[in-house]
Amino acid sequence: MPDTIIVDGLDFSKVGVEMFEGFKKLAKEFQVEVWFSALSKGTTGDTKPPVIPAPADKFHSFFSMIIELQPTQSGVELRLLKDHDSTTLLHETVLLDPKTFLARG
């Protein structure tokens, strides 16, 4: 029995709340985590505080955690946008090597 279901390539702009309600019910029934990947319509180099980019922002209440990968000139920034109800680490980033996706020191 799997522990995690990964949904890759779902176009958030073409689905409704019903889709995520169904996944939430499925996750509860089978006691699994569901992870989604989404392309955002955000802008690179944005210096504002982290916010949940469109189109995922419409569904943020269904997600416990939201992580953003943002390309930069020196690598790929991993930003925690939502961590359950905590706001402790939301302004921290980790720089990842763009080739290996390992954390850079």
Features:
alpha+beta; 1 helix; 105 residues; 13% helix; three-stranded antiparallel β-sheet
Would you kindly provide a written description of the structure presented here, covering whatever features stand out?
A hairpin with a 2-residue loop joins strand 3 (65-72) and strand 4. Helices cover 13% and strands 28% of the residues. The chain starts with a strand and ends in a 9-residue tail after the last strand. The longest helix has 14 residues, at 17-30. A three-stranded antiparallel beta sheet has the order 3-4-5, with no helix packed on it. The chain has a two-stranded parallel sheet with strand order 1-2. By secondary structure, the protein is an alpha+beta fold. The chain has one domain (4-96). It is globular. It has one helix and five strands.
**Portion in beta strands:** 25-35%
Please state how the strands of the largest beta sheet are arranged side by side.
3-4-5
Coarse structural class: alpha+beta
Tell me the radius of gyration.
15 Å
Unreliable segments of 5+ consecutive residues? none
Number of helices: 1
Q: Based on CA inertia axes, which overall geometry fits? A: globular
Largest pleated sheet: 3 strands, antiparallel
- Tally of extended strands? 5
> H/E series, N to C?
EHEEEE
Q: What value does the average pLDDT take?
A: 86
- Residue share in helix: 10-25%
**End-to-end distance, in Å?**
37 Å
Number of domains: 1
